[in-house]
Specification:
CATH class of the largest domain: Alpha Beta
Number of strands: 14
CATH topology of the largest domain: Rossmann fold
Largest sheet: 8 strands, parallel
CATH superfamily of the largest domain: NAD(P)-binding Rossmann-like Domain
Shape: globular
Radius of gyration: 19 Å
CATH architecture of the largest domain: 3-Layer(aba) Sandwich
Strand order of the largest sheet: 9-8-7-10-11-14-12-13
Order of helices and strands: EHHEEEHEEHEHEHEHEEHEHHEHEH
Strand content: 15-25%
Length: 317
């Protein structure tokens, strides 16, 4: 069994190849049970968790396991809040093939899933991206969107100026051809954008939905809690809503569940999940005036596709 570390994942993945691999993955039969997240403590204030995400198809079986200890960097300096590994098996023989760094694959596949949705839902000439994110995932999100649309300008918003600057530098290091600047004020930057991508830890909406211009594509990946959300009810009720996976989003995402609890939205109003777009069972953007909204919480199937792509690249090497 091969051990593949984070550095090797970074060397082998590119967004064009990963986005296409995810698209093909979603077009073929697969199985993906609901992921399991286990609280590691009964204390209400303790958010420590352990999770398992399985998926399989005719070629491979994959299971991602991760630990989430949000206070780890404070309690244990030098340690991360999240650690993850993906175990890949051959479907025909059951033989373990590889143990792959799951944290790096998660960054890549999360951004690539959003980019795949953008390829169906954003206007083809979308060139202005507002990135509301400054964490580890931020630069991946920007680079992924720029791989499927002709992005010429990116504005980065965050509450920490140092993190904003670091995110800008990370994007420029990969795409010197794109103008990347700090966002001045969301009241100005939200209407400016053709695509808005949000990957924050905010428990409350980042901006009023009324600020979003007609034709904008919005993307929300930061929240995984039923009682939290990055966008407000107004945006959900006025947008054409799509999800990466009904199974997981309908169980976890406050962006949709809070408007449902308010009696202002029904889950039946979700237009499609990403697999239906890829398979041609549902259409994407209908016109240039619609606001589209994509909510993603991540899926084991995306982990499988990303891990297998890395494994095959290593085998070819």
């Amino acid at each position: 069994m091969q051990i593949i570390n984070a550095k090797q994942v970074q060397q082998k993945l590119t967004f064009p190849t990963l986005v296409e691999a995810l698209k093909q993955q979603l077009c073929h039969p697969y199985s993906m049970p609901r992921r399991r997240v286990y609280a590691l403590s009964e204390a209400a204030e303790d958010q420590d968790a352990f999770a398992l995400l399985p998926a399989w198809d005719d070629e491979s079986i994959a299971v991602k396991a991760f630990t989430y200890l949000p206070d780890n960097p404070v309690k244990n300096p030098g340690y991360e809040s999240l650690y993850s590994q993906i175990l890949l098996f051959d479907r025909q023989t059951g033989v373990p093939q590889a143990l792959i760094d799951g944290t790096s694959v998660t960054y890549w596949r999360t951004a690539a899933i959003s980019a795949l949705a953008t390829s169906f839902l954003a206007r083809e000439k979308s060139s202005r991206l507002l990135l509301c994110a400054t964490g580890n995932l931020a630069s991946y999100m920007a680079l992924a969107h720029a791989s499927v649309r002709p992005i010429t300008a990116i504005r980065v918003w965050g509450r920490n100026p140092q993190k904003v600057a670091a995110t800008i530098s990370a994007i420029k290091a990969q795409r010197a051809d794109i103008e990347v600047t700090a966002a001045d004020a969301l009241q100005v930057d939200v209407p400016w954008a053709d695509i808005i991508s949000c990957a924050t830890g905010s428990p409350t909406p980042l901006f009023p939905g009324e600020w979003v211009s007609p034709g904008t594509h919005t993307d929300f990946v930061g929240n995984h809690h039923k009682d939290c959300r990055e966008c407000d009810t107004y945006l959900v009720t006025t947008a054409q809503v799509y999800v990466d996976s009904r199974l997981n989003v309908f169980n976890e995402a406050g962006e949709l569940l809070i408007p449902v609890a308010e009696g202002l939205f029904s889950l039946d109003e979700v237009k499609a999940e990403l697999a239906e777009l890829c398979q041609g069972k549902a259409g994407g953007r209908l016109n240039d005036n619609d606001i589209t909204l994509f909510k993603s919480v991540g899926s084991a199937l995306a982990d499988l596709a990303g891990a297998r792509l890395v494994f095959k690249a290593m085998q070819e090497q």
